[in-house]
Amino acid sequence: MTSSLSVDAPRTGTPRPKGKGEGSMATALLSPTFIVLALVIAYPLLSAVYQSMFSSQSGLDADGFVVEGETFVGIANYLDIFTGSDSPRFYNALWNTSFFTFVSVSLETVIGVAFAVMMNRAFKGRAFLRAAILVPWAIPTAVSGLLWRWIFQSNGIANELLNQEILWTAEGMSAQIAVITAEVWKTAPFIGLLVLAGMQIIPEEVYEAAKLDGASGWRQFWSITLPLVRPALLVAVLFRLLDSLRMFDLPFVLIGPRKSSVETLSILAWDESNQLNYGAASAFSIILVIYVAIIAFVFIKLLGANVAGDSEEKSVRRMRTARRKAAR
Amino acid sequence: MTTITAPTVRTAPPAKRRRKGTGAAVLRYVGIAIVAVYCLAPFYWMLVSSFRRSGDIFDNSLLPTTWSLESYAQVFDSSTMFGTALLNSLIVASITTALALVLGIFAAYAIARLNFPFKSSILAIVIATSMFPGISVVVPLLRLFSDIGWINTYQAMIVPSLSFAIPLAVWNLTTFMKQLPFELEQAAMIDGCTKWQAFRLVLLPLAAPGVFTTAILTFIHSWNEFIIALSMVNDPAIQTATVAISKFTGASDFQAPYGAQMAAGVVVTIPLVIMILLFQRRIVEGLTSGATK
């Protein structure tokens, strides 16, 4: 806890003669990383912005010649997406992305926290549980897509257990349920793991004190556990939110591309680029980046998720208020 | 796999009965059983299905009536090129991991141990890049790589993979390096080491466990990567395993070869499961160190 990642500001006023040459050494050490990040993050971002203002449709120019290749269209691609011919597909994908993210992250959070509580109580089986809980996390998403397609097969195990005959992997609501189920299965344990780690740094005395004051188990959970794991939980949920917004592999493998009920923004952009509509594809990917950034910003501002690290005083203060609340 | 019995999860005992001892113990075991069944049942189903004969693939019994390696034979049938795909995955994931580690060690050392302005913003930038959607990297780079003839090459998969591997490595390694005591380096420097020698001879050996953990995490992420490999490569000889598996249509069957798909899924997942069993403590440590600090 002492090594908080968030160095608020470089301390001024305290001259540190020792660190004189460190600036240039840091530059030397950091530059390879930043050169590569510039190539694989900054360049694609700028290039996408640029490409999104071109359209590759061939047509006739003013003199009646056939123009092959790219023409500058300004923001026409974006206009198309928001109001034009692309808009129904775009709004559908935007809705799917948001719907999947909201529903699956909510379910994952509830299941993850429940798992963490159960694992925190388990003493004997903890090593086994820890290995078990890593399995869904480690399975490649593409494989998990195949696996769930098999489970949701028309005469597969899901229909047998539910005693139903649902065509899960076709289209519509059932396909969405299938995607959400697979997504939650794979990622709830991850949240559970992070929350469990947060729980394990809560000192036992806090619970002892609460017990002495007669707080019930439920009360202890709401007034001690939950507030104290809040930082870890918020980071986990933020990661899951951002990861879920770019969901691609799972619907792609489980249901397939070009299925409107499970088409996410990532799949839509991929499909456009697959058909060499780089302009539209770039525009979609820029919109996705902006959407992700907005969600991250709002989440961090609203809930105060501290990704870079929590300062010590803050967590001590939080622990104190939690203890007080539990004792009340 | 013996731990998974039929999902006969007993319902929790009535909460009113506040017999501390046995009630709590039963609840505890029920909890363990729920978590274990939830996590392992689908994986178990994949495993069991992969050992069924293609004739009784649609059986829903808990164990195969007749065990068979037919599906595995189908997977490694030379026409599927699945062995090549596994090798490709290994090459791409290993090189990505190695590059990310080398760059990450330098960057993390600078962020964790040196004093310079804008340090926190630099770390923030690195963390922010890890949230960048894969598709937004793929679309522009696809264009660039087709222009310079990189489509169907390993580097076309490795370079974009660095976009998630480097932030992951830098963040993890920074957390680890911050935990090491500063006195050791100072002592080495008092003994006449340069900053660089102190890093190489003192800090790096101490950071080895953290480097190893980061390597495991980065490798698993690269091994599981899908969208980059799917977009940059269409030649089956260069395809990675995750992509090959998604395009798996079997040798001759008209019906989707579910048995072979499950067997291929098991083959792709088994290396990861072995890693989990060997290094679970480290993996958990690596995954959680960023969140609880």
Automatic annotation (TrEMBL), chain B:
Keywords: Cell membrane, Membrane, Transmembrane, Transmembrane helix, Transport. The keyword Cell cycle does not apply. The chain crosses the membrane at residues 26-47, 85-110, 122-142, 154-177, 198-223, 258-279. PROSITE patterns: ABC_TM1. CDD domains: TM_PBP2. SUPFAM superfamilies: MetI-like (SSF161098). GO terms for biological process: transmembrane transport. It is found in: Cell membrane. Residues 86-279 form the ABC transmembrane type-1 domain. Its main location: membrane. The keyword Membrane applies. Belongs to the binding-protein-dependent transport system permease family. PANTHER family: INNER MEMBRANE ABC TRANSPORTER PERMEASE PROTEIN YCJP, MALTOSE TRANSPORT SYSTEM PERMEASE-RELATED. This is Carbohydrate ABC transporter permease. It comes from Mycetocola manganoxydans. The lineage of its organism: Bacteria, Bacillati, Actinomycetota, Actinomycetes, Micrococcales.
